[in-house]
Amino acid sequence: MKKSTIAIQTRYPLPDAYGAVGMPVYHTAAYEFATAKEMADAFCGRSAAPSYSRVTNPTVTHFEDRVKALTGAADVFAFCSGMAAITNALLAVVEHGQNIVTSRHLFGNTVGLINRTLARLGVEGRFIDLLDLDAVRQAVDDHTACIFLEIITNPQMEVADLGALAEIAHGHGIPLIADTTIIPFTQFSAKDLGVDIEVVSSTKYISGGATSLGGLLMEYGTFPQVAQRIRAELLYNLGSYMAPHAAYMQTLGLETLDARYRVQAQNALNLAQRLAEVPQIVQTNYVGLKTNPFYTLAQKQFGPTAGAMLTIDLSDKQACFHFIDHLKLVRRVTNLFDNKTLAIHPYSTIFGPFSRSQKLAMDVLDTTIRLSVGLEDVDDIYEDIVQALP
Ligand SMILES: *Cc1c(COP(=O)(O)O)cnc(C)c1O
Questions:
Q1: For residues 55-73, average pLDDT
Q2: Are residues 297 and 349 in contact, defined by beta-carbon separation less than 8 angstroms?
């Protein structure tokens, strides 16, 4: 079956007392047992019966099962946010005194997680240019826990060669962990590209229009100790599992993901092509444009679509603020892949807490506007953007 069919038709385990079409929402913190032995078996992992919703919940399990059916992952875990998924992935592999080799182009809070939170626990972040494979080979040593990357960086829109990075990681017996939020996992197989652990902010495309926060972690069977550690240790001790109501909404989101994504990716490509011709726009950056330096690699790795995020560069920061202030249809919002088109000036917002020199080192420029392209008619989006330009 095709992915769009699997996303909709993966059934929950019957019987249900009322034969509900959709998976019921089990809004319960805890579960009752008939005997002391059943209780002991559930708590000690000898049965699959749920014991407490910090660790497992039937509605969340069904969401995880649909993602498993779509990705072919050996294990899937749903968390309360994308950051929780990333935190669990890194804490499952790293020990005190080890290092994480990653890109100098990373989502702002992931930078903070590595160079502040994990640094305090004795973990070193090595933020390098992942396009320079020699630099990666030099950075990885006997104390490296993993290589971590984002498949299309934001807002720099850079694409690394996943196969080459997987080869380096596997040569050292360590996993390649990829944050694939920017292109839905229905479009390509991270596993086939050599990714061992995939993390996704399901707040974005999957939630179905910014309905809820969520995160996913897929383990592809190459590092099963990671799934084991999450199941037996981190779910219990970190308390970052997804809530049942979020799983309900995100399961619905999964059902329409393919249909929504097709329109959004098509809108993004159409918009990028048209914005590239507008004189006030210094540069339009979208990896789906044939003129983009990452076009060929992105097509090879992720297939014919290139996501619904693009950036435009204007002459200076004042022009960017003028643009943001004059938008009438496009929303001034930080999120990605809402049904609505969103705009933000990353330099002064998401990356606001970083110093000027830190932003320079991350190639976050004060001339860049990030656009997340929605489901509106693309002509309306285009007209609003053009009328807001200074
Ligand atoms: C949004 C985002 C995250 C964080 O996800 P939350 O669900 O907001 O915690 C991580 N990585 C990328 C690439 C993102 O876009």
A1: 97
A2: no
